[in-house]
Write a structure and sequence with these properties.
Strand order of the largest sheet: 5-4-3-2-1-10-11-12
Largest sheet: 8 strands, mixed
EC number: 3.1.3.12
Cofactor: a divalent metal cation
Radius of gyration: 21 Å
Order of helices and strands: HHHHHEHEHEEEHEEHEEHEHEEH
CATH superfamily of the largest domain: HAD superfamily/HAD-like
Catalytic activity: alpha,alpha-trehalose 6-phosphate + H2O = alpha,alpha-trehalose + phosphate
Pathway: Glycan biosynthesis; trehalose biosynthesis
Function: Removes the phosphate from trehalose 6-phosphate to produce free trehalose. Trehalose accumulation in plant may improve abiotic stress tolerance.
Mean pLDDT: 82
Number of strands: 12
Bound molecules: magnesium ion
Length: 371
Protein backbone atom coordinates (compact mmCIF):
# COMPACT_ATOMS: atom_id res chain seq x y z
CA UNK A 1 0.00 0.00 0.00
CA UNK A 2 2.99 2.27 0.42
CA UNK A 3 3.94 4.68 -2.27
CA UNK A 4 7.51 4.73 -3.56
CA UNK A 5 9.55 5.37 -0.46
CA UNK A 6 12.40 7.01 -2.33
CA UNK A 7 10.08 9.68 -3.59
CA UNK A 8 8.77 10.32 -0.11
CA UNK A 9 12.15 10.32 1.66
CA UNK A 10 13.10 13.89 0.74
CA UNK A 11 9.64 15.10 1.74
CA UNK A 12 9.92 13.25 5.06
CA UNK A 13 13.29 14.83 5.82
CA UNK A 14 11.78 18.26 5.16
CA UNK A 15 8.89 17.35 7.43
CA UNK A 16 11.22 16.27 10.22
CA UNK A 17 12.99 19.61 9.94
CA UNK A 18 9.61 21.34 9.95
CA UNK A 19 8.41 19.41 12.99
CA UNK A 20 11.67 20.05 14.86
CA UNK A 21 11.35 23.75 14.10
CA UNK A 22 7.74 23.88 15.21
CA UNK A 23 8.67 22.17 18.50
CA UNK A 24 11.51 24.62 19.13
CA UNK A 25 9.23 27.57 18.46
CA UNK A 26 5.68 26.45 19.02
CA UNK A 27 4.27 29.97 19.38
CA UNK A 28 3.59 30.36 15.67
CA UNK A 29 1.07 27.57 15.30
CA UNK A 30 0.47 26.00 18.72
CA UNK A 31 -1.49 23.07 17.29
CA UNK A 32 1.71 21.31 16.17
CA UNK A 33 2.53 19.35 19.34
CA UNK A 34 4.96 16.45 19.47
CA UNK A 35 2.59 13.44 19.49
CA UNK A 36 0.39 14.99 16.83
CA UNK A 37 3.37 15.70 14.62
CA UNK A 38 4.51 12.10 14.94
CA UNK A 39 0.99 10.97 14.05
CA UNK A 40 1.18 13.23 11.01
CA UNK A 41 4.42 11.56 9.96
CA UNK A 42 2.93 8.07 10.41
CA UNK A 43 -0.13 9.15 8.53
CA UNK A 44 1.95 10.56 5.72
CA UNK A 45 3.75 7.24 5.24
CA UNK A 46 0.80 4.89 5.60
CA UNK A 47 -2.14 6.93 4.40
CA UNK A 48 -0.91 9.34 1.77
CA UNK A 49 -4.44 10.24 0.69
CA UNK A 50 -5.76 11.27 4.10
CA UNK A 51 -6.61 14.92 3.43
CA UNK A 52 -6.68 16.09 7.05
CA UNK A 53 -3.32 14.60 7.88
CA UNK A 54 -1.74 16.09 4.82
CA UNK A 55 -3.26 19.46 5.65
CA UNK A 56 -1.88 19.32 9.21
CA UNK A 57 1.48 18.40 7.73
CA UNK A 58 1.27 21.55 5.63
CA UNK A 59 0.54 23.47 8.84
CA UNK A 60 3.82 22.29 10.35
CA UNK A 61 5.65 23.17 7.14
CA UNK A 62 4.17 26.67 7.00
CA UNK A 63 5.27 27.30 10.58
CA UNK A 64 8.82 26.15 9.77
CA UNK A 65 8.79 28.42 6.74
CA UNK A 66 7.90 31.42 8.93
CA UNK A 67 10.82 30.52 11.22
CA UNK A 68 13.23 30.33 8.31
CA UNK A 69 11.94 33.64 6.94
CA UNK A 70 12.64 35.26 10.34
CA UNK A 71 16.08 33.66 10.47
CA UNK A 72 17.07 35.02 7.06
CA UNK A 73 15.99 38.60 7.71
CA UNK A 74 19.11 40.83 7.49
CA UNK A 75 19.17 41.79 11.20
CA UNK A 76 19.62 38.18 12.25
CA UNK A 77 21.98 36.92 9.59
CA UNK A 78 25.15 38.46 11.04
CA UNK A 79 26.40 35.70 13.33
CA UNK A 80 26.63 33.26 10.46
CA UNK A 81 30.01 34.25 9.07
CA UNK A 82 31.71 30.94 9.80
CA UNK A 83 28.85 28.91 8.39
CA UNK A 84 28.87 31.21 5.37
CA UNK A 85 32.57 30.72 4.75
CA UNK A 86 32.21 26.96 4.47
CA UNK A 87 29.08 27.40 2.35
CA UNK A 88 30.97 29.64 -0.10
CA UNK A 89 33.59 26.92 -0.37
CA UNK A 90 31.00 24.49 -1.72
CA UNK A 91 29.02 27.09 -3.68
CA UNK A 92 31.67 29.49 -5.05
CA UNK A 93 30.92 32.82 -6.69
CA UNK A 94 30.10 32.41 -10.38
CA UNK A 95 32.08 35.62 -11.01
CA UNK A 96 35.28 34.35 -9.37
CA UNK A 97 35.01 31.03 -11.20
CA UNK A 98 33.88 32.51 -14.51
CA UNK A 99 36.85 31.15 -16.52
CA UNK A 100 36.21 27.63 -15.21
CA UNK A 101 32.52 27.87 -16.11
CA UNK A 102 33.08 29.02 -19.69
CA UNK A 103 35.79 26.40 -20.06
CA UNK A 104 33.26 23.63 -19.38
CA UNK A 105 30.76 25.35 -21.70
CA UNK A 106 33.21 25.51 -24.60
CA UNK A 107 31.91 23.93 -27.81
CA UNK A 108 28.44 23.53 -26.34
CA UNK A 109 25.27 25.51 -26.91
CA UNK A 110 24.69 27.68 -23.86
CA UNK A 111 21.00 28.15 -23.01
CA UNK A 112 20.23 30.77 -20.36
CA UNK A 113 17.33 30.43 -17.89
CA UNK A 114 16.57 33.34 -15.57
CA UNK A 115 14.18 33.81 -12.70
CA UNK A 116 12.83 37.37 -12.48
CA UNK A 117 12.20 38.67 -8.93
CA UNK A 118 15.36 38.84 -6.84
CA UNK A 119 17.43 37.69 -9.84
CA UNK A 120 16.96 40.30 -12.57
CA UNK A 121 15.19 42.83 -10.37
CA UNK A 122 15.66 43.63 -6.69
CA UNK A 123 12.99 42.47 -4.22
CA UNK A 124 10.92 45.59 -3.54
CA UNK A 125 8.03 46.27 -1.16
CA UNK A 126 5.46 46.64 -3.95
CA UNK A 127 5.63 43.65 -6.34
CA UNK A 128 4.06 45.80 -9.07
CA UNK A 129 7.15 48.02 -9.01
CA UNK A 130 9.83 45.34 -9.37
CA UNK A 131 11.47 47.03 -12.35
CA UNK A 132 14.84 45.99 -13.69
CA UNK A 133 17.53 48.52 -14.52
CA UNK A 134 18.18 49.84 -18.00
CA UNK A 135 21.64 48.29 -17.79
CA UNK A 136 20.13 44.88 -17.06
CA UNK A 137 17.79 45.18 -20.05
CA UNK A 138 20.69 46.09 -22.35
CA UNK A 139 22.71 43.11 -21.05
CA UNK A 140 19.72 40.79 -21.49
CA UNK A 141 19.39 41.96 -25.09
CA UNK A 142 23.03 41.01 -25.61
CA UNK A 143 22.50 37.62 -23.97
CA UNK A 144 19.49 36.87 -26.19
CA UNK A 145 21.54 37.77 -29.27
CA UNK A 146 23.98 34.95 -28.51
CA UNK A 147 22.01 32.31 -26.60
CA UNK A 148 18.45 31.02 -26.44
CA UNK A 149 17.18 32.75 -23.29
CA UNK A 150 14.13 32.11 -21.12
CA UNK A 151 12.59 33.94 -18.18
CA UNK A 152 11.17 31.39 -15.74
CA UNK A 153 9.00 33.01 -13.08
CA UNK A 154 6.17 32.49 -10.63
CA UNK A 155 4.56 35.64 -11.98
CA UNK A 156 1.89 35.94 -14.61
CA UNK A 157 3.54 35.76 -18.03
CA UNK A 158 2.03 39.03 -19.28
CA UNK A 159 3.12 40.88 -16.16
CA UNK A 160 6.72 39.75 -16.37
CA UNK A 161 6.75 40.54 -20.10
CA UNK A 162 5.73 44.11 -19.24
CA UNK A 163 8.74 44.35 -16.93
CA UNK A 164 11.25 42.82 -19.36
CA UNK A 165 9.80 43.99 -22.70
CA UNK A 166 12.07 41.88 -24.89
CA UNK A 167 10.18 39.95 -27.60
CA UNK A 168 13.22 37.79 -28.43
CA UNK A 169 13.03 35.79 -25.18
CA UNK A 170 11.10 32.71 -24.10
CA UNK A 171 8.74 33.36 -21.20
CA UNK A 172 7.63 30.68 -18.75
CA UNK A 173 5.15 32.32 -16.36
CA UNK A 174 3.13 30.89 -13.44
CA UNK A 175 6.06 28.63 -12.41
CA UNK A 176 6.39 27.30 -15.92
CA UNK A 177 2.68 26.54 -16.35
CA UNK A 178 2.37 29.18 -19.08
CA UNK A 179 5.14 28.96 -21.68
CA UNK A 180 5.52 31.05 -24.81
CA UNK A 181 8.32 31.29 -27.32
CA UNK A 182 9.88 34.43 -28.83
CA UNK A 183 7.67 36.62 -30.96
CA UNK A 184 10.71 38.20 -32.55
CA UNK A 185 13.80 36.59 -34.06
CA UNK A 186 16.67 36.34 -31.57
CA UNK A 187 19.35 36.65 -34.21
CA UNK A 188 19.44 36.27 -37.98
CA UNK A 189 21.13 32.87 -37.49
CA UNK A 190 18.42 31.56 -35.21
CA UNK A 191 15.60 33.01 -37.28
CA UNK A 192 14.28 29.72 -38.64
CA UNK A 193 14.21 27.95 -35.27
CA UNK A 194 11.52 30.22 -33.95
CA UNK A 195 8.62 27.92 -33.37
CA UNK A 196 6.16 29.88 -31.24
CA UNK A 197 6.02 27.36 -28.40
CA UNK A 198 2.91 27.65 -26.33
CA UNK A 199 2.24 25.25 -23.49
CA UNK A 200 -0.31 25.51 -20.69
CA UNK A 201 -0.50 22.23 -18.75
CA UNK A 202 -2.93 23.57 -16.11
CA UNK A 203 -5.57 25.38 -18.16
CA UNK A 204 -8.48 23.43 -16.60
CA UNK A 205 -7.61 25.01 -13.22
CA UNK A 206 -8.24 28.59 -14.37
CA UNK A 207 -11.81 28.95 -12.95
CA UNK A 208 -10.78 27.46 -9.58
CA UNK A 209 -7.73 29.73 -9.28
CA UNK A 210 -9.94 32.72 -10.02
CA UNK A 211 -12.45 31.67 -7.35
CA UNK A 212 -9.72 31.18 -4.68
CA UNK A 213 -8.20 34.55 -5.65
CA UNK A 214 -11.49 36.31 -4.80
CA UNK A 215 -11.84 34.42 -1.49
CA UNK A 216 -8.24 35.19 -0.48
CA UNK A 217 -8.71 38.90 -1.30
CA UNK A 218 -11.69 38.93 1.06
CA UNK A 219 -10.09 36.85 3.86
CA UNK A 220 -6.76 38.69 3.94
CA UNK A 221 -8.05 42.27 3.78
CA UNK A 222 -8.02 42.48 7.61
CA UNK A 223 -4.24 41.90 7.67
CA UNK A 224 -2.46 45.21 6.98
CA UNK A 225 0.07 44.95 4.16
CA UNK A 226 -1.11 41.56 2.89
CA UNK A 227 -1.13 41.47 -0.89
CA UNK A 228 -2.71 38.76 -3.03
CA UNK A 229 -1.48 38.58 -6.61
CA UNK A 230 -3.26 36.70 -9.38
CA UNK A 231 -0.64 35.04 -11.59
CA UNK A 232 -3.25 33.38 -13.82
CA UNK A 233 -2.30 29.73 -13.17
CA UNK A 234 -1.23 30.31 -9.58
CA UNK A 235 -1.64 32.86 -6.80
CA UNK A 236 0.86 34.61 -4.54
CA UNK A 237 0.19 35.94 -1.07
CA UNK A 238 2.95 38.48 -0.40
CA UNK A 239 4.24 38.94 3.16
CA UNK A 240 6.78 41.67 2.26
CA UNK A 241 4.72 44.50 3.77
CA UNK A 242 3.13 42.55 6.62
CA UNK A 243 4.33 43.08 10.19
CA UNK A 244 6.29 40.08 11.44
CA UNK A 245 3.78 39.64 14.29
CA UNK A 246 0.99 38.94 11.79
CA UNK A 247 2.88 36.41 9.62
CA UNK A 248 1.57 33.33 11.45
CA UNK A 249 -2.03 34.61 11.45
CA UNK A 250 -1.90 35.41 7.74
CA UNK A 251 -0.37 32.02 6.90
CA UNK A 252 -3.12 30.33 8.93
CA UNK A 253 -5.83 32.25 7.04
CA UNK A 254 -4.38 31.12 3.72
CA UNK A 255 -4.10 27.53 4.91
CA UNK A 256 -7.75 27.49 6.05
CA UNK A 257 -8.96 28.67 2.63
CA UNK A 258 -6.85 25.96 1.00
CA UNK A 259 -8.47 23.27 3.19
CA UNK A 260 -11.50 23.39 0.88
CA UNK A 261 -9.40 22.98 -2.25
CA UNK A 262 -7.46 19.70 -2.17
CA UNK A 263 -6.62 20.16 -5.85
CA UNK A 264 -4.49 23.17 -4.97
CA UNK A 265 -1.32 23.18 -2.91
CA UNK A 266 0.74 25.68 -0.98
CA UNK A 267 4.43 26.26 -1.63
CA UNK A 268 6.77 28.72 0.03
CA UNK A 269 8.97 31.38 -1.47
CA UNK A 270 10.83 34.46 -0.26
CA UNK A 271 8.24 36.25 1.89
CA UNK A 272 5.51 34.77 -0.25
CA UNK A 273 3.12 31.83 -0.09
CA UNK A 274 2.17 30.43 -3.46
CA UNK A 275 -0.99 28.56 -4.32
CA UNK A 276 -0.93 26.34 -7.36
CA UNK A 277 -2.52 23.25 -8.92
CA UNK A 278 -1.32 19.89 -7.62
CA UNK A 279 -0.21 18.85 -11.11
CA UNK A 280 3.38 17.65 -11.29
CA UNK A 281 4.72 20.73 -12.99
CA UNK A 282 7.35 23.16 -11.74
CA UNK A 283 10.27 25.30 -12.92
CA UNK A 284 12.37 22.13 -13.38
CA UNK A 285 9.77 20.60 -15.71
CA UNK A 286 9.57 23.92 -17.57
CA UNK A 287 13.36 23.85 -18.05
CA UNK A 288 13.17 20.31 -19.46
CA UNK A 289 10.26 21.25 -21.71
CA UNK A 290 12.14 24.25 -23.10
CA UNK A 291 15.34 22.26 -23.70
CA UNK A 292 13.24 19.68 -25.52
CA UNK A 293 11.50 22.26 -27.70
CA UNK A 294 14.90 23.72 -28.56
CA UNK A 295 15.91 20.25 -29.76
CA UNK A 296 18.34 19.41 -26.92
CA UNK A 297 16.34 16.59 -25.35
CA UNK A 298 19.06 13.95 -25.65
CA UNK A 299 21.96 16.15 -26.57
CA UNK A 300 25.32 16.31 -24.82
CA UNK A 301 26.17 19.50 -26.65
CA UNK A 302 24.04 21.76 -24.54
CA UNK A 303 25.08 23.79 -21.48
CA UNK A 304 22.07 25.19 -19.62
CA UNK A 305 22.74 27.97 -17.10
CA UNK A 306 19.91 28.55 -14.63
CA UNK A 307 20.03 31.57 -12.30
CA UNK A 308 17.45 32.02 -9.52
CA UNK A 309 17.05 33.09 -5.90
CA UNK A 310 14.00 31.22 -4.74
CA UNK A 311 13.04 27.87 -3.25
CA UNK A 312 10.95 27.25 -6.38
CA UNK A 313 14.16 27.53 -8.45
CA UNK A 314 15.54 24.51 -6.60
CA UNK A 315 13.40 22.24 -8.84
CA UNK A 316 15.38 23.53 -11.82
CA UNK A 317 18.74 23.20 -10.01
CA UNK A 318 17.83 19.57 -9.21
CA UNK A 319 17.05 18.83 -12.87
CA UNK A 320 20.45 20.18 -13.96
CA UNK A 321 22.21 18.22 -11.22
CA UNK A 322 20.52 14.96 -12.20
CA UNK A 323 21.15 15.54 -15.92
CA UNK A 324 24.78 16.32 -15.09
CA UNK A 325 24.50 19.21 -17.51
CA UNK A 326 25.21 22.91 -17.21
CA UNK A 327 25.13 24.78 -13.94
CA UNK A 328 22.71 26.19 -11.39
CA UNK A 329 23.50 29.56 -9.80
CA UNK A 330 21.73 30.64 -6.61
CA UNK A 331 21.34 34.37 -5.99
CA UNK A 332 21.81 34.82 -2.25
CA UNK A 333 23.84 36.77 0.29
CA UNK A 334 23.24 34.23 3.04
CA UNK A 335 24.06 30.53 3.32
CA UNK A 336 21.11 28.38 2.23
CA UNK A 337 20.55 24.73 1.51
CA UNK A 338 20.60 24.50 -2.28
CA UNK A 339 21.14 22.21 -5.24
CA UNK A 340 22.84 25.03 -7.16
CA UNK A 341 26.61 24.73 -7.65
CA UNK A 342 27.48 28.44 -7.74
CA UNK A 343 26.28 31.67 -6.20
CA UNK A 344 25.90 35.35 -7.00
CA UNK A 345 25.11 37.93 -4.32
CA UNK A 346 22.43 40.07 -5.94
CA UNK A 347 20.93 41.26 -9.25
CA UNK A 348 23.91 43.57 -9.93
CA UNK A 349 26.26 40.56 -9.77
CA UNK A 350 23.84 38.68 -12.05
CA UNK A 351 24.16 41.57 -14.51
CA UNK A 352 27.98 41.42 -14.32
CA UNK A 353 27.97 37.66 -14.88
CA UNK A 354 25.65 37.94 -17.88
CA UNK A 355 27.74 40.77 -19.32
CA UNK A 356 30.85 38.61 -19.09
CA UNK A 357 29.00 35.81 -20.90
CA UNK A 358 28.18 38.23 -23.74
CA UNK A 359 31.83 39.40 -23.88
CA UNK A 360 33.03 35.79 -23.91
CA UNK A 361 30.80 34.95 -26.88
CA UNK A 362 31.29 38.16 -28.84
CA UNK A 363 33.94 37.72 -31.55
CA UNK A 364 37.01 39.51 -30.27
CA UNK A 365 37.91 42.70 -32.10
CA UNK A 366 41.04 43.27 -30.01
CA UNK A 367 43.04 40.22 -31.10
CA UNK A 368 43.39 40.02 -34.87
CA UNK A 369 43.16 36.48 -36.29
CA UNK A 370 46.00 37.03 -38.75
CA UNK A 371 49.02 39.24 -38.24
MG1 LIG B 1 12.89 34.95 -7.49
Amino acid sequence: MMTNQNVVTHEVINTLIAVAASISNSTALPSATVPESMAVLGGFWGLPHNKNLVKRLEGAKVSAWIDSMRASSPTRAKSESQEKRSWILYHPSALNTFEQIVCSAKGKQVVVFLDYDGTLSPIVADPDKAFMTRKMRATLKGIARHFPTAIVTGRCRDKVYNFVKLAELYYAGSHGMDIKGPTKSQSPKQGNNNKAVLFQPASQFLPMIDEVYKILLEKTKTVPGANVENNKFCLSVHFRCVDEKSWAALAEKVRLVLNDYPQLRLTQGRKVLEIRPTIKWDKGKALEFLLESLGYENSNDVFPIYIGDDRTDEDAFKVLRSRGQGIGILVSRVAKETDASYTLQDPSEVEQFLRRLVEWKRPSTVTPTSV
